[in-house]
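Lab notebook, page 48
Experiment: co-folding of the full assembly
Goal: obtain a model of how the components sit together before planning crosslinking
Operator: M.T.
Materials (sequences as entered):
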Amino acid sequence: MSEQRQLLSDSAARLFESRDAVTWDDIDEIGIADVLVPEERGGSGADWDDACAVLQAAGHWQVPLPLAEAMIARKLLAEAELEMAPSRLSIAANTVGTLSGSGRACKFSGTLSSVPWGRDVAHVVTTLSFDGRTHVVVLAVADAIVHRRTNIADEPRDDLQFTDASAQAAAAISREAQHLFDYAALARIAQIAGALQSALERSIGYALERKQFGRPIGQFQAVQQQLALFGAEVAAATCASRSAAIAASAGEVSFEIAAAKLRANQAIGIATAIAHQVHGAIGFTREYALRRATQRLWSWRSEYGNDRYWSERLGRTVIEQGADRFWEHLVSG
Amino acid sequence: MHAFKFDPVTLPANAPAFRKEIREFLARELPHVPAERRTNCWAVFDAEFSRKLGARGWIGMVWPKRYGGHERAALERYVLLEELLAAGAPVGAHWIADRQSGPNLLRYGSEEQRQKYLPGMARGEILCCIGMSEPGAGSDLAAVRTRAEKLPDGRWRINGQKIWTSNAQHSQLMIALVRTGTLDEKNRHAGLSQFLLELRTPGIRIQPIVDLVGHPGFNEVFFDDVVVGPECLLGAAGEGWRQVTSELSLERSGPERYLSSFALFVELLRLAGRVDSEALRHAVGRLSAELWTLRQMSLSVAGQLAAGEDPMLAAAIVKDLGNTFEQSLPAIVQSLLGEDIRLEDDSDLARTLALLLQTSPSFSLRGGTREVMRGIVARGLGLR
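Observation: model returned without errors.
Model output:
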């Protein structure tokens, strides 16, 4: 583990753990929305492995802000040399609409779907094809009609509708800008790994405490075997997340992101089922904190590509490579 | 809580060139291996192929040169293993010697034992088998009852029986876990020792057991008043449990624990290349994701081993998940076949599938059952 990664991850975890509700001011104080921004533009110049360590902590402590989206948005803005907005930013990875005019002062009409905390941020960054090239586009939420929606964990996922709104646009340079959806998925996978870990810790703690038949339920082999499987699934999702993040720091990464999202999604099914089974009825109360992890996990399984989406994409890629090339590709990374 | 450690690994810079060398060797030496023979290939016995690998320096490649090894890096060996397994090379003959018997000798053997056996193992000529399981000692290995009794002249007399011994009929050597002290029910791990036994020793009798597909893969091995010299004790008397535990770590941690059904996945890819089907694409996508993840995890375990750590927990997790993957694949493939493909067809796909449907249930038994692996993981989680 690199020193920087450890430092970032530790300071983020300390902050998230110490606050009931993390605020943008907290985020700004330790600068973690800027980890992917190059140093010469005031950021940490960290790579995806470092960023995902922070996001894993955010997933673990269920930070109620679009930190992942803000990180990506700030990186895109910095690269495009667009005016650096404050950190209250989100992204839209599903955008339908048209850009007109040119340069920094253009107009946008269309809809940005499922924007995390769209109602609460000042600006949203998205990408659009314009003049045959992908462009990074910044829009002010004040110019939008906001259709409020929330995912099942009560996280805002708003649709923003713009009509002839002012926008800034610049040609996309980085892989992240070219493939915004994929990198948003990469960020979400790290959050999934963190939330899975918190659900596991809570479940183990509960199994060691809760007594039935005169002893802690964690002493029963039937429960131990289930928690062991839970642990293995969390390990798989975490390893997949970390491996994809490292690959992203090195170059082209669409295979790894697809594989990691599918694997993390699979872990969600097994892990959340065991977490609730171990907890029994208490896990189904509004008050008990387990739901804060499991409701997020159930939502995040759909976000930035569900199983159908990624298995179609990955399956197609692998089949097109040909049966005799699969192994070669798998180990070439 | 214990956070499971799966740190990423960087392979040596020469890995791509080494892969190329291995693939060229395999293309030359194994121009056509039927798909069903590529499945579970680390249980496929081919003494001639093992000698060729030995001549190439690819058995015991990390061992010291003075014992016939080649002093290559542990991660180079990992590259070799995964290439051999992915290609379905018949590596069963020397697999045990390379994976655990040789390393066990290096760790606990006397200078004389190392000199005597390691060079032959590295040439692929001395083949080994595992002497752990007994009729009354499966998952509960400490229940072994085979006894070695010390004679007044310093020699040992062994009586008892081992079972499920793969390739005993072809092997020269067995490392056997036996009881040398009296059984103490309060400390069952005490009083166990390992012996290095030449299978041609008088009093050893090997009887094959035919498995459910009709293959005489494993054996019963009987010991009737087998008398061996003190030089056959491996390591220290009474240290058998500690030694066998470290041997089990080697047995459970390799890439063979997720690649046994890989040949069937390749056949599935061929089918998906011919037949345009959403169900096939989605299955290929999911299975590719699982394979990629398992390889990353397996690689991480290899990295920990290479760094001199004992990744027992991580290895147990990879074995559990790897076996589940290997075992799920046949049923998934069976569910995806069209009506034009029958299980009894004489095609690579059908023969491979038919074989794996029958043999894959054993994958989560050998080398430690799924339940034992999860018990190890539960302990790591602080539950036991």
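Interpretation: Strands of chain A lie at 89-92, 94-102, 105-116, 123-130, 133-140, 145-147, 157-171, 211-212, 215-216.
Next step: discuss with group before ordering constructs.
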